[in-house]
User: Fold Stress protein from Nakamurella multipartita.
Amino acid sequence: MGDETVLVKGQNVPLDSDLSSLRLSVRWGCGSNPVDVDLVALILGPDRRVRTDADMIFYNHTATADGSVVHAGKVTADAGGSDDVLVDLTAVDADVHSLTVAASTDGAAFGEVDHLEWWVAGERAEPVARFPVSGLTSERALVLGEVYRRDGHWRLRAVGQGWAGGLAGLATDYGVTVDGSDEPGELDGAGESELEAELEADLEADREAEAEAVAEVVEPGGVLGDDAAIATATTTEPAGPVETAEPVDHPEKPEPVDPTGSTGPSAPSTPTPPQPRKVRIAADKPVTLPPIKLAEDGTWQTARLFSISGIGGADEQEKRATSALLWTMAAVRPLGRSLTARAGAPAGALETFLEVGFSLGELRVIPDGVIRIARGQKVWTALVEVKTGDGLLGREQVEKYLRLAKRRKYDAVITISNQVSTDPDVHPVDLPAHATNAVSLFHISWSEVMHEIRMLLAHHRFTDPVSLWILSELSRYLEHPRSGAMPFTDMGPSWVSVRESIADGTLRPGDQKAIPIVNAWQKLARQLCLGLTARLGVPVKQVVPRRWQTDPGLRLDEGTHRLADHGVLASTLRVPDAAGPITVSADLRTSRVTVSIEIGAPQENSLSRRVTWLTRQLKDAPDDLLVEARFAPRAETTCERLVDVRSRPQLLLPGKDWEPSSFVVSRSQPMGSKRSGARGSFVTSVNEAVDGFYADVVERVRPWAPPAPPLPESAGEPAPPT
Assistant:
């Protein structure tokens, strides 16, 4: 399919044939009234019904027996969240026609959700398609879409059909026997037969395609089906091909079959067939850790699961950290899944091992750990190499593990250290390209491990108190300085000399000492993304120009030129559902850190009211914020303090014909000068600037959206005769 496709209701698109697995997600956002949403996957046979009750994958039944469909877990926050299911397309049974992806709420109506979309990604989280769902009111469950087979190939279909009867009603309508629910669900906006007929059209098209290969083209001005009409009305540039099947007569629902063969009412003597196993819909309540209450005073320290006492040297530190992490990955499934998914591992039963010895020719090779994951008849294996403290990964050692993994036909080598890569796909050890031809190589910094743990503790819905306690203890251990797991805090040995050269005006783009500073900034930007992701529960990513993606060296070259010419380090971050991108810049000439966000201006009402639209949202924000108005395509801008714009919005408006296209809200504060450390360091000052600006500005501002078009005054009157 290429780039991400934005689907509209009723649209069908093919999946790339080289996709072997999918991540299917529901993502939602809500305002002051939090709503919890759950994802459900229904595995359907040719009759569009589940084959057994075990074909319903959701929070109380998290995986199929063969591991082909696995509930990957949920991330929630006050403002929304996401829930994911992983599908191994290569392992789905041959008699499965489709997977229906649905969502349900905790009892609230979907009309209370501000934003809802079905999101489809590939095995490495690369975006494939998304389907924004709108127009929902009282529904408590809905079908988001389908992944289905046609002519041996997988396809996507956006559905967007709601059920007012909730998850139990939806499940019952797809053939699942629900515990405690004997009533069928209630479709919203259409009868069940109407939706089934719509879905059956695709199935009938499959049958017809086997008998005859006919391509039908609808010329401009021709008659389009309902779904095609929706696509045409809602988008002027369709992101993908919209296919509509010819309408077919949907067969009547089969009546229940009497096992005696009688067509009339069952006789009293007819034996009652055994009751099928029922699915329990009620969700387990999330748990929290109980507070410590029995200590006499605050000096009492609670006992630790992972002790920090007795760590005598680097070897002991490394072994303890490795053992604690690998053991917890096996004991707490969400952590094991989230970390191994980065290495392309499948979801399945995970086991970990320490210091397993192997023979490599005449050498005895002992990696720090081994991870094995069983899924169906396949076993995925990765060798693990760990460094703590100031320990650095060595090229010779990594190459040795790659050769060992290749010889034993293992899948990956995973390295863990305090080295932070400038990019998720860049390994900190420079290796020849052929070294990873047969075996994948992945690096995870201890910063990433700690951020992943914090995100799970903050946003994952744990129902087992033991798992929550174990993960909390691992977090407590890794946060202790003796553990050897350290966040990125050091700008490097050339930091002072680069600052002095910038102050003297002697730094040039070709100076080698500038390169490590630009690389360190990229590591810091990545840490900012990881930190926000862990606390917000949504993926925060760095925005980079497309030319940098195709030529990583260009990113470093342009960064050194900007630093030498302007004395500035800068990055842009994108937070899902934020009002605009967030830009972070450090000016080493003025020793100031600036954080800003660009917000699209309203395109209606008077010019002054467009300004007050922004200031009303920032009524409790600090007075020292700056507000800049931009007037594209004009190059000129205006800028004033927020405290002044609140009382006199016209300060930002040079004239009556100057319509603002966007506003940039920014705040500048002193920059830390120290190379590293907790107080007064450059890294600490940037982290604090971003956190403060996000709390004061970003989370307060909503993007502008035009109101729905009003109906004409005569909408309810009959049209005059012609």
User: Anything to note?
Assistant: The first helix runs from residue 166 to 173. Residues 180-195, 206-277 have pLDDT under 50 and may be disordered.
